[in-house]
Amino acid sequence: MDVVNLSAQLNAAAILPEGIVILTLLAVLVGDLIVGRSSARWTPYVAIAGLLVALVALVFQWDIDNPIAFLGGFNGDALSVVFRGIIVLSAAVTVPMSVRYVEQSGTSLAEFLVILMAATLGGMFLTGADELVMVFVSLETLGIASYLLTGYMKRDPRSNEAALKYLLIGAASSAIFLYGVSLLYGLSGGQTRLTEIANTVLAEGGDAPIGLIVALVFVIAGIAFKIAAVPFHQWTPDVYEGSPTPVVAFLSVGSKAAGFALAIRLLVTAFPAVSQQWQFVFTALAILSMVLGNVVALAQTSMKRLLAYSSIGQAGFVMIGLVIGTEAGYASMIFYLLIYLFMNLGGFICVILFSLRTGTDQISEYSGLYQKDPLLTLGLSICLLSLGGIPPLAGFFGKLYIFWAGWQAGAYGLVLVGLLTSVVSIYYYIRVIKMMVVKEPHEMSDAVKDYPEICWTLPGMRPLQVSLVLTVVVTSLAGVLSNPLFTLANNSVTHTPLLQSALTPTNAEQVSLQSSQLSGD
């Protein structure tokens, strides 16, 4: 009987998608050990298939009867399902981006895929972690795998330097985060479940203890590092510039999505007593990230550094939804991350293609690219315009939803800063597009003059082509046909008890009023 009860409390079925990713990881690892370097012909397809099967399994995890697993350590609610889907999808798009890039560097593709799936696992567990130990173990799994990916090009000094910087700053942020978590553990009298910590602290009554404020500061520092928010962004430009470009693409979407999922679950569940304080801190982080990220991007000469500062600014936009703490705010965060997945990865695919063909990522070298590669120019232009928020592309509707939610909640200052910095971002995005399109033939850069003949039949190029077409098409159509994504984002909030209980009083009253009207009808 005890075994039956234990099995029921473990509820391993809640992590079926993670189990599929683990099996895929083992299949790639063992296959590479048996077959050797020739396994590169089929391991990417095994990895993509496993990740897509995990994505299908996540669909069946929606609204399951018992989402709590591992004695309360993991919560597979609708919120975690959506964020796990974003992370899995970002990994699935990153794999075909990596094939040609990794093989051309002379390193093992299978090992790269194994580490990438390990990072994916860490992010997936982090989005549903409901207990301090699982939070930290998941965070470190994601972090250590990210350090390994960053330094994967062992022969490249820039990759080694980026990995060392990332490791040192990441280790410091992990220590800071762990100290904040240990304070939470002590304040709650030895509890590790997030809900029990909050209940213990609230049961004491009165003002929030000073220890809780200190814990909040350290926890926010750890989260801000993961989402690359100013002033915890120092690692981002150097790591983005030196790391392998497919790794940067995954970090900019998958790692960032995991960080925002952690922020929502940890802050909403464990820190309800100091919600005004953490909202104030994130307001400051959002303003700093939007201003610094978009202003400093104006002066960048490297495409990867430009996208690094762009990602810092994008994190500031997403934080608006977290700060306002309304149903529309949380839904707008999820919707924006869903479309950011495709437009940002699409931009990185174009950067990879250009660097593979020319060996550089300097913005000035893109001059006159339209004359030699119209498809690449079109794809990069659409992705950059979407990141800037130009209608009718997906990025416009994402920003519109976030700004509308902020305006409805009364965060007028944040919305105005967001609008102004969006205008700034449009300038540096269009500067790149103008350089590619407007330049006369005699003004072509040397890299474009020596541009090789376009050949998609080379090993690893066809997956890149498919990824480029997929991301550009979704970026183009997701704005006009955004209703399914809107519905998914809204349903993920309304089907998550954690967020429903944390709605601001105004929203809660509106929800109850709507419910009473429906019941009356």
From TrEMBL:
Annotated NAD(P)H-quinone oxidoreductase subunit 2 N-terminal domain ranges read: 12-99
Membrane-spanning residues: 12-35, 42-62, 82-102, 109-126, 132-152, 164-188, 208-227, 247-268, 280-299, 306-324, 330-354, 375-397, 409-430, 468-489
UniProt GO cellular component terms: endomembrane system; plasma membrane-derived thylakoid membrane
EC number(s): the record gives: 7.1.1.-
Q: Could you say which enzyme class this protein belongs to?
A: translocase
Domain NADH:quinone oxidoreductase/Mrp antiporter transmembrane, residue spans: 129-424
The subunit structure is:
NDH-1 can be composed of about 15 different subunits; different subcomplexes with different compositions have been identified which probably have different functions.
What is the designated name of this protein?
NAD(P)H-quinone oxidoreductase subunit 2
Q: What is the lineage of its organism?
A: Bacteria, Bacillati, Cyanobacteriota, Cyanophyceae, Nodosilineales
